[in-house]
TrEMBL record:
Pfam families assigned to the protein according to its UniProt record, in alphabetical order: ATPgrasp_YheCD
Residue intervals of the ATP-grasp domain: 212-447
Organism whose genome encodes this protein: Anaerobacillus alkalilacustris
Gene Ontology CC, one term: cytoplasm
Protein name according to UniProt: ATP-grasp domain-containing protein
GO terms for MF: ATP binding; ligase activity, forming carbon-nitrogen bonds; metal ion binding
Record keyword ATP-binding present: yes
Classification via InterPro entries: ATP-grasp, YheC/D
Keywords, ordered alphabetically: ATP-binding, Nucleotide-binding
Length: 463
């Protein structure tokens, strides 16, 4: 039986005769059909302790009083903890929760805290606290089997030894670190202990293309894509298309992307750096291929059909649609932005100097209002379809995906990229104190933990 809010409070041993006693308010004992003096188990994360119940009529609010000794055994870092409690009568166990954590490879420093993602972590912590959810950040620098992490209290991050989480959100920001022994051992440990975790890995552009290509409903929206390999295949793409892109399969933020434009028998290659866009011309496709082969030999790249994108004020644009599963375990569009490329640059990523606006504001400048609204709706529907198919195609859980969609000059929608670690600053404006994406992610974590945040009759989240 689920109780949505109780107060767990540590008290001096004087009010409890033994360290293995707990006091429970009479209302909770009645609700759970627990008798005075009964032996039960209390669980918090991976800690399970045997205790005896002292039914207490004087406790008017739903409360459990525990000793400081039991508090330490359960790794509860606070003397007073508002939280949820699930009583399993078959196992005679009181389970406190949910315990949610977000893992990162970002070290905590007093001055910089968690770097650019600090604001997002604070939002998660505040929203979780408002809903009586125990939440912490776990920097995964090494793995020794313990869960040292940071809770956010009184506007400060404080380190504690903490209990195992009930669900984990992966915000590791490095592909290299995800391939490390530390992360592999940690993720194996979660699986062995039955702990749900989502967005377990970065996505590979080629694997995504191959997976989505098997579904006829989205195949028409995929640019023609091959691996960069032999000269004949490369030359064929240059023959078919006047523009192609060469992209690293594991790239992000628009880095290391090459754009190749064909004019008669001359090929212009554009390379976007963080400071400028560099161009080089080649008279022969074979010489170009040889140059690229030498330059790209250390990584895997794809060759992709160039799309003649719609422009605004002479600048190409695409759209980032954020999909999150949320508390109902169904994919929903949480937000979307139009990303406008900086002048004389070929990519729209904010990391490369791009600008973002509301999609409808941009589209109504290009089309009539009815058609603009239709495009917004179609992009949302396509993004939801892609998110569902990605979930279907991969092992492990995905609960958050940033899906990049473009519109060409003929009005057709194209799937440009799918990102499992979308940048928080790139997705939404920061006008809201708690962003919709933050709420949805905590809701999904709570769902995975077995302690879902339910809506009341007016549609608002219960606290």
């Amino acid at each position: 039986m689920f109780n949505r809010k109780i107060i767990v409070q540590a008290t001096e041993n004087g009010s409890l005769q033994k360290s293995d006693q707990i006091k429970i308010s009479q209302s909770l004992c009645k609700k759970w059909a627990i008798r005075d003096g009964e032996l039960v188990y209390i669980k918090f994360g991976n800690h399970l302790e045997k205790v005896y119940v002292n039914e207490t009529p004087s406790l008017k609010t739903p409360t459990i009083l525990i000793t400081f000794v039991l508090k330490e055994k359960l790794s509860i870092p606070f003397e007073i903890l508002p939280i949820h409690c699930l009583y399993n009568s078959n196992e005679n166990t009181l389970k406190l929760g949910p315990i949610l954590t977000c893992i990162t490879n970002q070290m905590y420093h007093e001055q910089t805290q968690f770097g650019t993602i600090t604001t997002f972590f604070e939002e998660m912590a505040r929203f979780a606290k408002d809903h009586h959810i125990f939440f912490y950040i776990k920097p995964l620098i090494n793995w020794d089997g313990s869960f040292f992490g940071y809770t956010f209290e009184q506007d400060k991050w404080q380190e504690h030894l903490l209990p195992y989480p009930d669900a984990v959100y992966n915000r590791i920001g490095s592909r290299g670190f995800e391939a490390s022994k530390v992360y592999q051992e940690f993720s194996a440990h979660l699986r062995e202990n039955g702990i749900n975790y989502f967005n377990h890995s970065f996505l590979n552009k080629w694997e995504i293309n191959q997976a989505l290509s098997s579904f006829p409903e989205v195949l028409p929206h995929l640019p023609d894509t091959t691996l960069f390999g032999d000269y004949d295949t490369f030359a064929e793409k240059l023959t078919i298309y006047n523009c192609i892109f060469v992209k690293p399969v594991n790239g992000s933020q628009g880095r290391q992307i090459l754009k190749i434009d064909k004019h008669d028998h001359e090929y212009s290659v554009y390379y976007s750096s963080f400071t400028q866009e560099i161009s080089t011309k080649f008279q022969s496709s074979y010489i170009l291929y040889q140059r690229l082969k030498e330059r790209l030999k250390k990584k895997t790249f794809i060759v992709q059909q160039g799309i003649d994108l719609i422009h605004i004020q002479g600048r190409p644009l695409d759209f980032r649609v954020l999909c999150v599963k949320g508390g109902e375990n169904e994919w929903k569009v949480i937000s979307s932005v139009a990303r406008i490329s900086p002048k004389e640059k070929m990519v729209s990523n904010l990391a490369q100097g791009g600008e973002q606006k509301r999609p409808l504001d941009v589209l109504t400048d290009l089309f009539d209002e009815k058609l603009a609204q239709q495009y917004v709706k179609l992009m949302s529907e396509l993004a939801i379809e892609v998110a569902y198919l990605i979930s279907k195609s991969y092992e492990g859980l995905f609960g958050e995906l940033g899906i990049d969609i473009a519109i060409d000059t003929g009005g057709k929608l194209w799937i440009i990229e799918v990102n499992s670690k979308p940048s928080k600053s790139e997705i939404e404006s920061r006008t809201e104190r708690i962003r919709p994406s933050t709420r949805a992610i905590i809701n999904y974590l709570a769902f995975l933990s077995g302690f879902p945040i339910q809506k009341n009759r007016k549609g608002k989240k219960e606290r």
